[in-house]
Design goal:
Structural class of chain A: mainly alpha
Number of strands of chain A: 0
CATH architecture of chain A: Up-down Bundle
Largest sheet of chain A: none
Helix content of chain B: over 70%
Number of domains of chain B: 2
CATH class of chain A: Mainly Alpha
Oligomer: heterodimer
Order of helices and strands of chain B: HHHHH
CATH superfamily of chain A: Fumarate reductase/succinate dehydrogenase, transmembrane subunit
Helix content of chain A: over 70%
CATH superfamily of the largest domain in chain B: Fumarate reductase/succinate dehydrogenase, transmembrane subunit
CATH architecture of the largest domain in chain B: Up-down Bundle
Distance between the termini of chain B: 65 Å
Largest interface: A-B, 43 and 36 residues
Strand content of chain B: under 5%
CATH topology of the largest domain in chain B: 3 helical TM bundles of succinate and fumarate reductases
Strand content of chain A: under 5%
Shape of chain A: elongated
Number of helices of chain A: 5
Number of helices of chain B: 5
Structural class of chain B: mainly alpha
CATH topology of chain A: 3 helical TM bundles of succinate and fumarate reductases
Radius of gyration of chain B: 21 Å
CATH class of the largest domain in chain B: Mainly Alpha
Distance between the termini of chain A: 58 Å
């Protein structure tokens, strides 16, 4: 593809908004990571649909399951935050409403991810003991 | 807000609220690349809700057997299963169309014929994979 950017501009990675391309790259990196992670999550959901509380606790007690569940959670919420942020920036233009929606998006994602990660680790480390 | 004469000529007095938002649904004929783009965002937002549902599952599991059983019953209810079915389609479609986007990021696949073809492929993959995985799940749970 033809590039209209200078060598220095490319090296600095700064676009028209005067900040880097980190957001764009992070969205792509997280989407690549989510291809295997989300498929693993889906097949795990089928396995988990057959078992009750005890079975689910034992399942999450396995190190590989616990680690992949944490990774799926963190990457998903990061990707979701980036994705909805673009939607908000595209469709909400009233300054107050837009800021509020962006904040809400961030807080919901951080809270959801923190809750899920803590709960996964709790079950993984205690084996579901209450 | 905006002055009528300016709005008519389209040159003056147009605030942000008066500007048309892309895609211009009212003047564009529906085509598959537009549908896949809209569907990508719609399924993305559905998956946002889906991730919160899964986070709720983890909270229920960490809260003990009673909370977990109640949450599991909620997911196994007709409405719960319908939501899970919709989320499965959302995941498969968003995944396929996401790969299509990564393919575009490499600078390829932009000519209309290829873009239409990959668009239909993403939709077809979403539908077929969803039906297939639910058939497998139902057989495994029943068997």
């Amino acid at each position: 593809m033809v590039s209209y950017r200078t060598a220095l501009g490319r090296a600095r990675g700064l676009g028209s908004a005067k900040h880097g391309v980190n957001h764009w790259i992070a969205e792509r990196v997280s989407s690549i990571a989510l291809v295997p992670l989300s498929l693993w999550g889906l097949f795990s959901a089928i396995t988990l649909s057959r078992v009750g509380f005890e079975g689910a606790s034992i399942w999450l007690h396995a190190p590989v399951n616990a680690v992949l569940a944490v990774l799926l959670t963190v990457v998903s919420f990061q990707h979701m935050h980036a994705g909805l942020r673009v939607v908000v920036e595209d469709y909400l233009h009233t300054p107050g409403t837009k800021t509020l929606a962006l904040l809400l998006n961030l807080f919901v994602c951080v809270l959801g991810a923190a809750l899920a990660v803590f709960c996964i680790l709790k079950v993984a480390l205690t084996g579901g003991a209450v | 807000m905006s002055d009528a004469a300016g709005a008519k000529t389209g040159t003056q007095g147009r605030g942000p609220d008066d500007r048309p938002l892309s895609p211009h649904m009212s003047i564009w004929r529906w085509h598959v690349t537009m549908a896949t783009s809209i569907l990508h965002r719609a399924t993305g937002m559905a998956l946002y809700a889906g991730a919160l549902i899964i986070a709720g599952w983890a909270v229920a599991l960490a809260s003990g057997p009673d909370a977990f059983d109640a949450y599991r019953a909620l997911l196994a209810s007709p409405l719960g299963l319908l939501v899970l079915f919709g989320l499965t389609f959302s995941l498969f479609y968003h995944l396929a169309n996401g790969v299509r986007h990564l393919f575009w990021d490499s600078g390829r696949g932009f000519d209309p014929k290829t873009a239409d073809m990959t668009g239909w492929a993403a939709i077809a993959f979403g539908v077929v994979a969803t039906v297939l995985i639910w058939a497998i799940a139902v057989i495994r749970i029943a068997g």
